[in-house]
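Reminder to self: tokens first, then the designed residues, so the page reads top to bottom the way the pipeline ran.
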């Protein structure tokens, strides 16, 4: 037990400096350009899903939250909202970088997520023939919603706070994973999740729906450890919109409609995760 604890602690501590540098860069990016996100997506009429898929890939939870508010005010289409949600991955990118995952693999993961998000967004808009009716009041509310997540405090302290928060998640999960692997065995654990088709994707997508950064940490770490493959990874991270789902439920007038959107989000992520597994796409 002590060895498992120390291994988890040492591995997590090794990531600290890399995580801090990454989150510091994200904080600077957020302060320079993040506040203009609602205007950018709100004005992107015909290219809404494309704009949503591209900006959603930026690891900043306020983007998904602002998109949910924009959709609730019908400033953007459902396809654009889903594109942002599908391309969002919460803590995936910082963890992949800090774990020294090869750059080519990271580019493949992020690029494929963006492609899936954009294609899915346009399909939804095409099927529903979604249209927007610009509402300046709704746009202002969206900017205010983004402001709730857009920290104006010291970027160095903000990055440090975020780093320590994610460090705790990584350490706790790594320790628990060491215990499980030590008792069950890594190959056997991976076999349990992959022995029955689709089960891994279904479970990962359910975990991904949890509106907390811990869910993306768990899914990404399990992929890095080789416990889940590319299919479950994408199924879980495609649906991982973080607090965006909570903001959607709170701001959208139709509770039933919000649940329907989450069902579409889950189904879309699950579908693409299964397809990636079936096609045996190398990531």
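Designed residues (283 positions):
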């Amino acid at each position: 037990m002590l060895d498992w604890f120390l291994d988890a602690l040492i591995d997590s501590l090794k990531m600290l400096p890399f995580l801090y540098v990454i989150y510091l860069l994200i904080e600077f990016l957020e302060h320079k350009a993040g506040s203009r996100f609602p205007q950018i997506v709100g004005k992107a009429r015909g290219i809404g899903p494309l704009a949503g898929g591209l900006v959603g890939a930026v690891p900043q939870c306020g983007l998904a939250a602002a998109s949910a508010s924009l959709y609730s005010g019908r400033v953007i289409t459902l396809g654009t909202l889903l594109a942002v949600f599908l391309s969002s991955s919460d803590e995936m990118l910082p963890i992949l970088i800090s774990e020294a995952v090869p750059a080519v693999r990271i580019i493949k993961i992020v690029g494929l997520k963006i492609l899936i998000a954009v294609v899915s967004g346009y399909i939804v808009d095409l099927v529903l023939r979604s249209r927007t009716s610009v509402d300046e009041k709704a746009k202002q509310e969206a900017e205010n919603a983004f402001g709730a997540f857009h920290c104006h405090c010291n970027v160095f302290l903000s990055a440090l706070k975020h780093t320590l928060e994610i460090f705790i998640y990584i350490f706790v999960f790594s320790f628990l994973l060491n215990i499980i692997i030590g008792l069950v065995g890594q190959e056997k654990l991976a076999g349990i999740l992959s022995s029955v088709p689709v089960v891994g994707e279904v479970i990962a997508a359910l975990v991904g729906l949890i509106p907390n950064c811990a869910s993306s940490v768990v899914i990404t770490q399990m992929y890095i450890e080789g416990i889940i493959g590319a299919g479950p990874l994408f199924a879980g991270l495609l649906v991982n919109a973080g607090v965006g789902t909570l903001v959607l439920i709170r701001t959208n007038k139709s509770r039933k409609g919000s649940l329907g959107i989450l069902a579409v989000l889950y189904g879309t992520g699950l579908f693409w995760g299964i397809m990636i597994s079936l096609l045996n796409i190398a990531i």
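The radius of gyration is 19 Å.
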